[in-house]
Automatic annotation (TrEMBL):
UniProt KW Transferase keyword: yes
Enzyme class (EC, first level): transferase
Residues that, per the record, bind ATP: 89, 91-92, 112, 124-125, 175, 182, 261
Reaction equations catalysed: L-seryl-[protein] + ATP = 3-O-(5'-adenylyl)-L-seryl-[protein] + diphosphate; L-tyrosyl-[protein] + UTP = O-(5'-uridylyl)-L-tyrosyl-[protein] + diphosphate; L-threonyl-[protein] + ATP = 3-O-(5'-adenylyl)-L-threonyl-[protein] + diphosphate; L-tyrosyl-[protein] + ATP = O-(5'-adenylyl)-L-tyrosyl-[protein] + diphosphate
Binding site for Mg(2+): 252, 261
Species this protein is from: Microbacterium plantarum
Family: Belongs to the SELO family.
Cofactor: Mg(2+); Mn(2+)
Keywords attached to this entry: ATP-binding, Magnesium, Manganese, Metal-binding, Nucleotide-binding, Nucleotidyltransferase, Transferase
HAMAP family associated with the record: SelO
Enzyme nomenclature, EC number: 2.7.7.-, 2.7.7.108
Record flagged with keyword Magnesium: yes
Protein name, per record: Protein nucleotidyltransferase YdiU
Length: 486
């Protein structure tokens, strides 16, 4: 039997009161459910029919409290574009509590856009329909691609106007996550100056995400090692699908290894490692090709915050931290190389790592020279392996290196099925996302429904969905920018 109510615990609030401010959502004047993720509701053991009812919607906007809930705004700090802000926190979000999923795991139920909190600073605490639907589309697309991420359960229009450059319809997002602990949560704990708070956050993160770390001589170091590994794997996966997070501040990097905070993120179209879409990233700090370096930089900030738990003395603590941080690059390289093998269909162990690396490197050089579309050009490799190189020729034809590359690659008998499972046909292309959001903001949710349906099975061709696999025209792609949605 699926429960028709929602019952939550308050683990985080109990374990880490120094990071939690009891709070409640602002009333939404006229709540209207825009999208509900029925598959996720099922996974969480929630009844979709109930969530669609007026009582269910009241729960989704925080107007009625789930059984047992003690909602809090979470405190965290963060390095934003390299500069440290000691007090960020949920300015417009609320942790309703944790749900115990049927598989026994704890999942945060979290509202974004639910009104200003004690951490709001000058912000209004609100969110507009477009950016909340954008997070819904992007996070669910990432999930369907097999990439660890927070999920989106629902977007509810609030009936409130949100003032940005113009007046926009307001909405809130109901998000789930294996937790909302961030690198910035540890930085915040360190900033309290109370070592017991720092230890409590680390112990909580270990228990919730990386329990194996508890058995290490220095559990905090074990946690750091686990986060280094999880983030190396995660960012490798981003790179392999052409995902650009856009705002990799330390407050937007989880300890769990889930992707979080879909503000100005976007997928690469024409391949260029220097690609930046975010309007505020004028220096290109968070460009596609920089992401592994930024992840490593963020992890160094995490280590700094945890140093007192590594050793009582500074020097040995730093040495231990550096030793573990040094694991990031090989771990990332290994994850990326394994993924690249699959993308090139070279699963056969007789093809050496060096051969794969050389083929991948040369392929990316051609992509960059031609500014070829990242997603569709990789996907065209399966047809080429099956004997039809027309798609590949259309993308890279004329490149002097192509014929030689094809000969070398084909000599390894690439496996088209492996490639079909590794190179998506459908990713949330910028022009499609914009088109769906514009329609949704104007009241037509149909294009968004189609887009989310197509993106839910990204590796399987769907008849009638051909345009979802195609790049935008050059007029759209040039100068495309994304915004943080604040
Ligand atoms: P983000 O860029 O979404 O990671 O947000 C950075 C910080 O700004 C976080 O502490 C957010 O909670 C806060 N914030 C963003 N938008 C708003 C808003 N409209 N009102 C209050 N706080 C906000
Ligand atoms: Mg954030």
């Amino acid at each position: 039997m699926t429960p028709v109510t929602l019952s939550l615990s308050h683990d985080f609030a109990d374990a880490l009161p120094a990071l939690a401010r009891p709070w409640s959502a602002d009333p939404a004047p006229a709540p209207r459910l825009l999208v509900l993720n029925e598959a996720l509701a099922d996974e969480l053991g929630l009844d979709a029919g109930f969530l669609r009812s007026p009582e269910g919607v009241d729960l989704l906007v925080g107007a009625a409290l789930p059984e047992g809930a003690q909602p809090v705004a979470q405190g965290y700090a963060g390095h934003q574009f390299g500069g440290f802000s000691p007090r960020l926190g949920d300015g417009r979000a609320l942790l309703l509590g944790e749900l115990t999923a049927p598989d026994g795991s704890l999942r945060d139920i979290h509202l974004k856009g639910s009104g200003p909190t004690p951490f709001a600073r000058a912000g209004d605490g609100l969110a507009a329909v477009g950016p909340m639907l954008r997070e819904y589309v992007m996070s669910e697309a990432m999930h369907a691609l097999g990439i660890p991420t927070t999920r989106s359960l629902a977007v509810v229009a609030t009936g409130r106007e949100v003032l940005r450059e113009a007046a926009l319809p307001g909405a809130l997002l109901v998000r789930t996550a294996s937790s909302h602990l961030r690198v910035g949560s540890v930085e915040f704990a360190r900033g309290t100056g109370d070592i017991a708070v720092l230890r409590a956050v680390v112990d909580y993160a270990i228990a919730r995400h990386h329990p194996e770390a508890a058995d290490e001589d220095v559990p905090a170091l074990g946690l750091f090692r686990a986060v280094v590994a999880a983030q190396a794997d995660l960012v490798a996966r981003w790179m392999l699908v052409g995902f650009i997070h856009g705002v990799m501040n330390t407050d937007n990097m989880t300890l769990s290894g889930e992707t979080i905070d879909y503000g100005p993120c976007a997928f690469l179209d024409a391949y260029d490692p220097a690609t930046v879409y975010s309007s505020i990233d004028t220096g290109g700090r968070y460009a596609y090709g920089n992401q592994p370096y930024i992840a490593e930089w963020n992890l160094a900030r995490l280590a700094e915050a945890m140093l007192p738990l590594f050793d009582d003395e500074l020097e040995p603590a730093v040495e231990l931290a550096q030793g573990v941080l040094a694991e990031f690059r090989p771990r990332f390289a290994e994850a990326r190389a394994a993924g690249m093998r699959r993308k090139l269909g070279l699963a056969d162990a007789r093809v050496s790592d060096e051969q794969v690396e050389a083929l991948a490197g040369d392929f990316h050089e051609m992509l960059e020279r031609k500014r070829a579309d990242y997603t569709s050009t990789f996907r065209s490799l399966s047809a080429a392996a099956r004997g039809d190189a027309a798609g590949l020729e259309a993308a890279l034809g004329g490149d002097p290196a192509l014929t030689g590359w094809l000969d070398r690659w084909r000599a390894h008998a690439p496996d088209a099925e492996v490639m079909d499972a590794a190179n998506p046909i459908y990713v949330p292309r910028n022009h499609l996302v914009e088109e769906a959001l514009a329609a949704a903001t104007a009241g037509n949710l149909e294009p968004l429904g189609w887009l989310t349906t197509v993106l839910s099975t990204p590796f399987t061709a769907r008849s009638g969905a051909e345009r979802y696999a195609e790049p935008a025209g050059p007029d759209f792609a040039a100068g495309y920018q994304t915004f943080c949605g604040t």
